[in-house]
C-alpha cells in the first residue's frame, strides 16, 4: 500500500539551513560580478551607518553602565561585572542595529532590484504575482514600517541587565529576516499578514537567518557586504522553502496488511 511521507527535518537541521544562506549569499555575489553594481550602495551605507552606531554605542556605554548599576544598588562583585558587561553589550548592539536598520530602509529600492536579479538567476525567472506597482509600493512601505517601529523596542530591551542583550538579539534577528525576505515574498503575491504567517511557519529558518546576519555584522570585513549578502541569502531561502512547500510528497510503497 502506498503511503505519503510528509516528515519534516528536525529543528536544528532547519535552523542550520536558514543560517547557511548568509554565507551562501556572500558566495553567490562573489561568483557573479554583474550583481556587484547593485551591491555597492547598500554595502557602503550599511558600513558607514553601522560604524556610526558602534561609535555612538561606545560613547554612551559608560553612561548607561553607571545608570544601570546605580539603579540596581549594591550588588555582589560577580553580578556587578555581569550587569556592566550586559549594559555595554546592549549599548553597542543597540547602536549598531540602529545604523543597520536605517541603512536597510534607505537602500530598500536598490536591495529590491538585487533580490529580483538573484531570483532571476536562481530560478531562471523573476516572479511578479503582486497586485501592481501601487500594491508593491504599499507592501514595501508597510514592511519597512514594521522594521522601523520595532527598532526602538529592540534598542530598549537590549539595555535590560543580563537577559536584555539575548532577548534583543532574537527580536532583532526576526526583524532582520523579515526585512530581507520581504520583497521576495511580496513578489509571490503575499500581503503583509501572509508574510508574517510565513515567518511563523518557518520560524527556525527565519530566526537563524537573522541571527547569522547579526553575528556577521561584527565579523571584521564581513559587515561591509552584509546588506547585499543578507538580501541575497533571504531571496535564496524563500526560493528554497517555496519549492519545498510546492513539491509533491514522496510516496513510499509498503505491504498491505
Overview of this protein structure:
The radius of gyration is 21 Å and the shape is globular. A two-stranded antiparallel sheet has the order 1-2. The chain has helices spanning 11-30, 36-72, 77-106, 108-123, 133-158, 164-186, 192-201, 203-217, 226-246, and strands at residues 2-5, 250-253. With 257 residues, it is mainly alpha-helical. It has nine helices and two strands. The termini are close together.
Low-confidence segments, ≥5 residues, pLDDT <50?
Answer: none
- Please report the number of helical segments: 9
Rg over alpha carbons: 21 Å
The 3D shape can be described as globular
Helix content estimate? over 70%
How would you sum up the major sheet?
2 strands, antiparallel
Q: How many angstroms separate the termini? A: 8 Å
Order of helices and strands: EHHHHHHHHHE
User: What fraction of residues sit in β-strands?
Assistant: under 5%
* Order of neighbouring strands in the sheet with most strands: 1-2
Layout of helices and strands:
Blueprint (H helix, E strand, L loop, with lengths): L1 E4 L5 H20 L5 H37 L4 H30 L1 H16 L9 H26 L5 H23 L5 H10 L1 H15 L8 H21 L3 E4 L4
Antiparallel strand pairs: 1-2
Helix pairs in contact: 1-8, 1-9, 2-3, 2-4, 2-9, 3-5, 3-6, 4-9, 5-6, 6-7, 6-8, 6-9, 8-9
Amino acid at each position: 500500500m502506498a503511503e505519503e511521507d510528509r516528515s519534516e527535518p528536525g529543528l536544528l537541521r532547519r535552523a542550520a539551513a536558514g543560517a547557511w544562506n548568509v554565507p551562501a549569499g556572500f558566495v553567490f555575489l562573489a561568483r557573479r560580478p554583474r550583481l556587484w553594481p547593485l551591491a555597492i550602495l547598500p554595502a557602503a551605507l550599511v558600513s558607514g551607518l553601522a560604524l556610526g552606531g558602534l561609535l555612538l554605542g561606545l560613547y554612551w556605554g559608560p553612561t548607561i553602565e553607571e545608570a544601570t548599576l546605580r539603579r540596581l544598588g549594591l550588588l555582589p562583585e560577580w553580578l556587578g561585572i555581569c550587569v556592566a558587561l550586559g549594559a555595554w553589550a546592549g549599548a553597542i548592539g543597540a547602536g549598531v542595529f540602529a545604523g543597520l536598520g536605517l541603512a536597510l530602509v534607505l537602500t530598500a529600492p536598490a536591495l529590491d532590484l538585487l533580490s529580483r536579479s538573484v531570483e532571476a538567476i536562481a530560478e531562471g525567472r523573476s516572479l511578479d504575482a503582486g497586485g501592481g506597482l501601487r500594491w508593491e509600493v504599499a507592501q514595501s512601505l508597510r514592511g519597512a514600517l514594521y522594521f522601523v517601529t520595532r527598532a526602538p523596542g529592540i534598542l530598549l530591551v537590549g539595555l535590560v541587565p543580563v537577559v536584555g542583550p539575548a532577548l534583543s538579539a532574537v527580536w532583532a534577528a526576526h526583524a532582520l529576516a523579515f526585512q530581507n525576505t520581504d520583497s521576495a515574498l511580496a513578489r509571490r503575491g503575499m500581503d503583509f499578514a501572509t508574510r508574517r504567517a510565513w515567518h511563523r511557519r518557518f520560524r527556525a529558518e527565519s530566526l537563524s537567518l537573522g541571527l547569522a546576519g547579526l553575528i556577521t555584522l561584527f565579523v571584521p570585513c564581513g559587515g561591509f557586504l552584509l546588506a547585499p549578502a543578507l538580501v541575497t541569502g533571504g531571496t535564496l531561502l524563500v526560493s528554497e522553502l517555496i519549492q519545498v512547500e510546492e513539491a509533491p510528497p514522496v510516496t513510499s510503497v509498503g505491504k498491505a496488511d
